[in-house]
Amino acid sequence: MDAGDYDLGDVDIAWCPGCGNFMIHRALKGALAELDLKPEETVIVSGIGQAAKMPQYIRTNFFNGLHGRSLPAATAIKAVNPGLTVIAESGDGCMYGEGGNHMVHAMRRNPDITCLVHNNMVYGLTKGQASPTTRPGFHTPIQTRGVVAQPLDPLATAVAANCSYVARAFAGDEDETRGIIRDAMEHKGFSLVDILQPCVSYNRVNTFRWFKDRIYYLDGDHDPADRLAAFERAIENERLPLGLIYRVDRPPFEVSLAPYLEGDLKPLFRRQTRMDALVDLVESLRGDQG
Fold first, then answer.
1. How far is CA 260 from CA 110, 171, 288, in A?
2. Residue 67 to residues 64, 100, 211, Cα–Cα distance (Å)
3. I need a labelling partner for 110 at 20 to 30 A (CA). Which of 34, 86, 183, 251 fits?
4. Residue 288: pLDDT band by 50, 70, 90 thresholds?
């Protein structure tokens, strides 16, 4: 496959000129192409927001859910059809704010889903309010005296929750981001990729230059299997590590479900329905009302 195979043609992409979403868009299409994933065998699930428009601009199956609710839908899609490649994708407000509870429980369950979070430290769709990752002192139309709340650290949260794959990328480094996304998609289990992505319209503090001055890539000295070392990297605040932070192999959620315990991953909708068992179930629910 080629990255162009995932293009929808001449469509109006509703992102601001210079937005980091364009770079993630290209990186994701490149990763899909390098893995030779057919569009009809891939599903991108998103919530609400600027980042959540991504699946509307890539030729694959897609599902747009409610704000913060992409992960439950993605988990269900993977559970009923384990052969699909499932990507959950949205912004820091959608995933870490409204969807924060779903994020933690997805890490716990470990479905084979790649979760891409566009982290621009601001709400872009609703005109620049503080998000869960906004740093203290940042002024917004709502926080007129500056943000005072401590920001959420998604990487530290993920390592603490024993998320089976935790990585960070930077939208401005398109080739490296493509490689990180590809590696996350190859991991069997829940993969969180926090992508630092400047918002050129509503965040004039955390700019491309701001990130470039602070990011660095982890080298061979970092052992992603060492959970304590991963946590130390995750809580770094002045310098921002990129690459694979933490990885642990755990069985994916869907393979432990009853229909798949014997290794048969045939989708549920392709299986023969046992009408006798269905009738017995209905009768058991009717009880004495029958």
1. 16, 37, 34
2. 9, 11, 27
3. 34
4. low
More confident call, 230 vs 261: 230
For the chain, the structural domain boundaries read 3-264
The DSSP-derived string for 43-82 is EEEE-SSSGGGGGGGSSSEEEE-STT-HHHHHHHHHHH-T
DSSP 256: G
Question: Cα–Cα distance between 214 and 235 in angstroms, integer?
Answer: 14
Secondary element (H or E) of residue 234: helix 227-234
Distance of alpha carbon 81 from alpha carbon 248, whole angstroms: 24
- The total of other beta-carbon atoms located within 10 Å of residue 233's CB is 24
User: How many Å from the N-terminal Cα to the C-terminal Cα in the chain?
Assistant: 57
Q: How far is the C-alpha of 205 from the C-alpha of 208, rounded, in Å?
A: 9
Per-residue pLDDT tens over the stretch 54-78? 999 999 999 998 999 999 999 999 9
Q: pLDDT digit string (tens) for 156-206?
A: 999 999 999 999 999 999 999 999 999 999 999 999 999 999 999 999 999
The CATH number corresponding to 3-264 among 2.102.10.10, 3.40.50.970, 3.10.129.10, 3.20.20.140 equals 3.40.50.970
